[in-house]
Amino acid sequence: MRLAVLVSGTGTILDAMAADGLSIALVIADRPCPAFDRAIAHGIPAAVFRRESFGDNFDRVGYTEKITGELEKQKIDLVAMAGFGTVLEKPIYGRFAGRILNTHPSLLPAFPGWHPVEDALVRGVRVTGCTIHVAEPEVDAGPILAQEAVPVFLGDDVATLHERIKEVERRLYVKTIRQFVEKSLAEEAAK
Ligand code: GRF
Questions:
Q1: Is 38 near ligand 1, meaning CB less than 6 Å away?
Q2: Which residue out of 36, 101, 103 has the highest number of ligand 1 atoms within 8 Å of its CB and is therefore the one to mutate?
Q3: DSSP class per residue in 71-133
């Protein structure tokens, strides 16, 4: 299965995927970012699709079409979002139905959205965690594939708690992608 990874941030999850030997055919970033630089450093084909070139009123459908077109051109089978900062529109979820995965740093359905670590701290929960799920048009709402709890310690701030969650994400996402690929290949073989 040809895997593509979508990124926008520091790229430590992408790094963990590459370090664990996952074969990554393509990395797409929605902005220049350390994750893109990590892809280049690993020798992975990578591209930056800048949002700015899609107008002041961001043409989200046009941007989604561009990414979807590139994924199809590169014959990608499975897409893994790893800290990707752009909400994509319906076309990609039609053409890659059930084949787009995402990791989110909370125990969904708790704390969906853009500030899950901060929201967990503000709410004062003692346990949070991460969720690997199949991505769907509704953000952070797709079928859950794996979850793991992470303790919140007194004195934690967003940085310390997020890094503790990421340690789990780096391991759990790689394991879940491998299981997803194995299952998909077995289903394919059984046809
Ligand atoms: C992860 O916590 C992911 O759940 C969130 O963004 C973070 C990406 O981390 N959406 P990195 O860029 O791979 O270090």
A1: no
A2: 103
A3: HHHTT--EEEESS--SPPPHHHHHHTTT-EEEEESS-TTSS-SS-HHHHHHHHT-SEEEEEEE
Which CATH number applies to 102-191? 3.40.50.170
CB 149 within 8 A of CB 172: no
- Ligand 1 centroid–CA 188 distance in Å is 31
Side-chain-side CA neighbours of 96 within 13 Å: the count stands at 31
Residue nearest to atom 5 of ligand 1 (CA): 83
Q: What is the pLDDT of residues 136-178, one digit of tens each?
A: 999 999 999 999 999 999 999 999 999 999 999 999 999 999 9
pTM for this prediction: 0.96
Is 104 considered catalytic here?
Answer: yes
Spatial distance between the Cα atoms of 162 and 116, rounded to a whole number of angstroms: 9
**Equal CATH topology for 1-97 and 102-191:** yes
Please work out whether the CB of residue 128 comes within 6 Å of at least one atom of ligand 1: no
Per domain, the residue ranges of the chain are 1-97, 102-191
Nearest-atom index, ligand 1, CA of 7? 12
Percentage of residues in the chain with pLDDT exceeding 70?
Answer: 100
Reported CATH class of domain 1-97: alpha beta
